[in-house]
Amino acid sequence: MNRLGNATSPYLLQHADNPVDWWPWCDEAFAEAKRRDVPVLISVGYAACHWCHVMAHESFEDETVGRLMNETFVSIKVDREERPDVDAVYMTATQAMTGQGGWPMTVFATPDGTPFFCGTYFPKPNFVRLLESVGAAWRDQRDAVLRQGAQVVEAIGGAQAVGGPTAPLTADLLDSAAAQLAREYDGTNGGFGGAPKFPPHMNLLFLLRHHQRTGSTQALEIARHTAEAMARGGIHDQLAGGFARYSVDGHWTVPHFEKMLYDNALLLRCYTHLWRLTGDPLAARVARDTARFLADELHRPGEGFASALDADTDGVEGLTYAWTPDQLVEALGEQDGRFAADLFDVTESGSFEHGTSVLRLARDVDDADPEVRARWQDVVRRLLAARDTRPQPARDDKVVAAWNGLAVTALAEFVRLVESGAVTVREEDANLLDGVTIVADGALRQAAEHLATAHLVDGRLRRVSRDGVVGEPAGVLEDYGCVAEAFCAMHQLTGAGRWLELAGGLLDTALARFTAPGGGFYDTADDAEQLVTRPADPTDNATPSGRSALVAALVGYAALTGETRYREAAEAALATVAPIVARHARFAGYAATVGEALLSGPYEIAVVTDDPTGDPLVAAALRHAPPGAVVVAGRPDQPGVPLLADRPLVDGRPTAYVCRGFVCQRPVTTVDDLLAQLRG
């Protein structure tokens, strides 16, 4: 009997009609394996995963394969986004056994959950042979299977160890990390490494902050060039905005088409801050369009943001997105069709499959004449309208707490920058930017409310919700860190004390329930379900590690409240990541980003004013804020805002108060004096 029909996970629901007797992850499944004395087959994936769909079609939808699985195993289907703790444990085992990982992940385990054989995608003939071999080994070579399982558990326990070496995250270490990234930088195509090439959002955030602190032109140029190369490449949706998960090549041309919430949230922060620091119109446009993509395509009205858009449409990658020259002419007419083909590099031979091309911006039009820009934007609108008539990829509507936290933080930073007028835009772009900002502001406030009401249950975070109903999986460390950082961002955006109080509650819970020896943190709470090991991964990969996310929230909260114990906890946790920053900077981007904030101060900027949105002091503070600075604005002694307490207007004029690491300078009333203090 397939037991996935009542699941909240879209990924599990995709498998609800399989001839496999799937179980969700639960104690009952392992009890059934013990009763039958058979191994457990754990299949881990997610809704937007292309190869998960392929393996499902080839094997899990096949009656013969399903019968073999049912006779030989208890089969458990896991959504990695819903249960990142389960995914982390078995991914570590898979990497230990095979030297690589990925999804779908296929794990064979004993009835107590001990993994003894792991892999990823298997074509149907290989998978059938594997099922038969593992079943035979369980029957005939049980002792060897159990010994191998014990060795795997020992290996993954060491890989997830806590309490290792620590070191202060110093300026020299961060300088060295920036130099390491410069050595690994692809000076031709931007980014780091070869194919497949992933958007290095956290490394870009670090480099932008590093540039602010040190004045490094090299750090800024790496970030700027990479951001431009991605924005002009096929990985960026040239019509609707938003970025795909990665490029299958080393030059950003052909994407793997799934669009993830976390990538787009982190990239929005990158382009927002690149725009803030440079005034680059390309960065402004991409930030605007990414915010619009989040608000239009992923936001669920009255709730939060959906997790992803699928890689496939009707089982075909790129069906929605790829074009031929004839299709452009059909949609636009002869002249504009040729213009679009030249602009987006759509050729007869194609850059993708079957003579089709993925749109990429082959001409520098952000700085072109107004007439060219107007024609370009008109073509974009008409092509998008034509594309909307095509079949569309499915959306994973699951709301993940951590990823929604990333989106709320990014959108709050973008909205506040626009609303304050901190960075000027061309008149022709102003109306569109304002319209996007209004929609984005509404979406982020609804998402924050959804996190605060639906996902907070009895003071503890739940990981996921769908259709307004919260799921059972408990929040993991990244949920607490990302959501607490989002609530700190909401406090700065709105001036409401409620958000700061909520952030403090999450951080107190994290400090009480997740703390590990030596200053680090586990990824699961001390009262969470016990797995074969307790995960504690300190590396930043596709998303910030739980440790880095929590540290970011601790640093921001300490600056907003003046409570030093949160900063001390952040410094201790960063010290556990410093050895990774020193050796593998690409996998510690968010930790290094927070490290730059701590070295900078971070600055605490309070602007006492009756106009917290439009006051020139607020605009100047946001435009020139040093790395990781917190900025609040409002009336003197505004309730629930510690940075505004006991800070009056000076001579009846709006006044800025600047502190750095809890040491304050004299209050100032002019933009020039404020900038002098911020430039140190």
Outline type = globular
Range of helix content: 40-55%
Strand order, sheet with most strands: 1-3-2-4-5
Low-confidence stretches: none
Radius of gyration: 25 Å
Number of strands: 20
Mean pLDDT: 94
Distance between the termini: 67 Å
Question: Tell me about the biggest sheet?
Answer: 5 strands, mixed
Which class of secondary structure composition applies to the elements?
alpha+beta
Q: How many DSSP helices?
A: 24
| Strand percent estimate | 5-15%
Describe this structure in words.
The chain has 680 residues and is an alpha+beta fold. 52% of the residues lie in helices and 11% in strands. The chain has 24 helices and 20 strands. The chain has a 5-stranded mixed sheet with strand order 1-3-2-4-5, with helices on both faces. The chain has a 5-stranded antiparallel sheet with strand order 8-9-12-15-16. Strand 19 and strand 20 form a beta hairpin. Helix 4 runs parallel beside helix 6 and helix 16 packs antiparallel against helix 17 (427-455). It is globular, with a radius of gyration of 25 Å.
